[in-house]
Amino acid sequence: MNGYNAITIRTILGAYPVESIHEIKKPFESKLWEIGGAKVSLNDIENGTLRPMLKYHAHAVLVCAARSCPPLQRSAYSADSFESQDDKAFTNWLGREDLNKFLPQEKKAEVSEIFKWFKADFEKSLAVSKVFAKYGSASARELTKGGQKFETSYLSYNWGLNDQGEHGRHYSKINSI
């Protein structure tokens, strides 16, 4: 995951300034990176290695440089502390109300499209509602308490560059994977 995140950042820096990673030609498909003697793409790393190995945990730790992406952690992931780092990454991601909203009074969750795109990854290991209960805010825990039913909708994914400055702030192409 550190390699994936580093390659994503390197891809952005190589084309900067851009408004979105999608302004770069085939950023996820291009086999430009050598790992273990083989040329690989970001998709190869994510779908061929990390998702099968990490299951739903991959989605909180991989960064695609988009505003709707889970936040990049400040330090590299390590085998010794991955579980606590992953817990923190999920908590940070689900706690961001611009990325996921839990509305217990309305019995409703408005969450990242990542939960729709990769629903099978979550459901193979743990029901999505249990992910919300385990890692989510107090509102998420209240919403999922006692296994009560709630409506789930998905927030439009903003592919604008997740930049500290103005780049990507006004990117208007919102789409799915």
How would you characterize this protein structure?
The chain is of the alpha+beta class and 177 residues long. It folds into 2 domains: 1-65, no CATH class; 91-162 and 171-177, no CATH class. The protein is 40% helix and 11% strand. It is built from 8 helices and 5 strands; from the N terminus they run H-E-E-H-H-H-E-E-H-H-H-H-E. The protein has helices at residues 2-15, 42-54, 58-61, 82-95, 114-117, 119-125, 128-135, 138-144; strands spanning 33-35, 38-40, 101-103, 108-112, 151-155. The strands form 2 sheets. A 3-stranded mixed β-sheet has the order 3-4-5. The model has no long low-confidence stretch (mean pLDDT 93).
Sheet bearing the most strands, described?
Answer: 3 strands, mixed
Approximate helicity band: 40-55%
**Biggest sheet: strand arrangement:** 3-4-5
How are helices and strands ordered from N to C? HEEHHHEEHHHHE
Distance between the termini: 19 Å
Based on helices, strands and strand pairing, what is the structural class?
Answer: alpha+beta
Query: Which shape, going by the Cα principal axes?
Result: globular
| Rg | 17 Å
The total count of strands amounts to: 5
Q: Indicate how many domains the architecture comprises.
A: 2
Low-confidence stretches: none
Number of helices: 8
- % residues in beta strands: 5-15%
Mean pLDDT: 93
